[in-house]
Amino acid sequence: MNFDRHRRLRSSAAMRDLVRETHLNKDDLIMPVFVDANITGKTEISSMPGVFQFGIDSVLDEIDEIVKLGVKSVIMFGLPDHKDEVGTGAWEDDGIVQQAIRLIKKNYPELIVIADTCLCEYTSTGHCGVVKDGEVLNDESLTYITKTAVSQVKAGADIIAPSNAMDGYVASIRAGLDEAGFINTPIMSYAVKYASSFYGPFREAADSSPEFGDRKGYQMDPANRLDAMREVLSDEKEGADFVMVKPSMAFLDVMREIKNHTVLPLVAYNVSGEYSMIKAAAQNGWIDEDKIVQETLVGMKRAGADLIITYFAKDVAKRINEGENF
Ligand code: PBG
């Protein structure tokens, strides 16, 4: 009888470790942080158990915990104390994210602080750009998005991560940063951003739901694969330094395809709805949270992700510190 004995390489834990192809380590993790101009202390996000919004008075406590666990980068989101048509709170010098970045970089200069660059938390319409006659205008929005990026870097951001899904934002931000003298600040583009229902809990966390309509006129159709390639090709041409796929779990095929076609570092965003689903099922005792988190995040690495933005970053770092082989 002649057949292959695949089980030879699965015969013991040590044997399995010997042939294991994919690992996750702490350097791969980026932790999201929400800072809210309207609160002091911290408020738990009801649809994201274990994730909090922080007031400017308490954000350093969270950062301290993150740093001590050995997570080396965070991505910042802000909830401003006022919203208007052009999202002024996103780009003013004393905006909530700018204040938080200044404070964090002063106290933790080594930490990589990434700024999410979008208008949806700051516009009265809740859209990611400026709206006229019910339409989200592309080129007009770039002006404000670029102002936002420049002000975030002025405040000390190490990386700009534009998530607004307008066309040409990489080119526009690159030109704006270069002109302001920030030639060395990288752009982590949310290149492949689907119009996804998995962002639901985030919109509570960041108070950024659109007042009318949806984001399908600028974010991508989840049914499309080639559109993802077109987005990546554009962003590479425009000067992106990283490309991202978002969400993750339903888009691992797209991640792999992009990994096979780009030489840029690839980022996976394990989004809010993905986090909440796992938390909810685990709280009901239906799944084993630790094991599911491990399988999910290692799956993203196997699919080609070099870095993962995840609300589980602190939990994972803790487990790695305790000696778990991730
Ligand atoms: C801002 C932005 C969103 C997310 C990251 N940046 C929401 C959206 O596009 O509606 C979602 C992140 C998550 O769900 O965890 N545009």
Automatic annotation (TrEMBL):
Q: Name one GO molecular function term.
A: porphobilinogen synthase activity
Task: Kindly report, in one word, the top-level EC class recorded for this enzyme.
Answer: lyase
| Active-site positions on this chain | K193, K246
**GO CC annotations on file:** cytosol
Q: Quote the Pfam families the UniProt record gives.
A: ALAD (PF00490)
Query: InterPro entries from the xrefs?
Result: ALAD (IPR001731), Aldolase_TIM (IPR013785)
Keywords attached to this entry:
Heme biosynthesis, Lyase, Magnesium, Metal-binding, Porphyrin biosynthesis, Zinc
Q: Which cofactor does it need?
A: Zn(2+)
Q: Which reaction does it catalyse?
A: 2 5-aminolevulinate = porphobilinogen + 2 H2O + H(+)
Coiled-coil annotated residue ranges, if any: none
**Binding positions for Zn(2+)?**
C118, C120, C128
Per UniProt, 5-aminolevulinate 2 binds at: S272, Y311
- Does the keyword section mention Metal-binding? yes
One GO BP annotation of this record:
protoporphyrinogen IX biosynthetic process
What are its E.C. numbers? Answer: 4.2.1.24
Q: Which sites bind 5-aminolevulinate 1?
A: R203, R215
Biochemical pathway: Porphyrin-containing compound metabolism; protoporphyrin-IX biosynthesis; coproporphyrinogen-III from 5-aminolevulinate: step 1/4
Annotated Mg(2+) binding sites: E231
Question: Which function does this protein serve?
Answer: Catalyzes an early step in the biosynthesis of tetrapyrroles. Binds two molecules of 5-aminolevulinate per subunit, each at a distinct site, and catalyzes their condensation to form porphobilinogen.
The UniProt similarity line reads: Belongs to the ALAD family.
What quaternary structure, including any partners, is listed in this protein's UniProt entry? Homooctamer.
What name appears for this protein in its UniProt entry? Delta-aminolevulinic acid dehydratase
Protein source organism: Lentilactobacillus kosonis
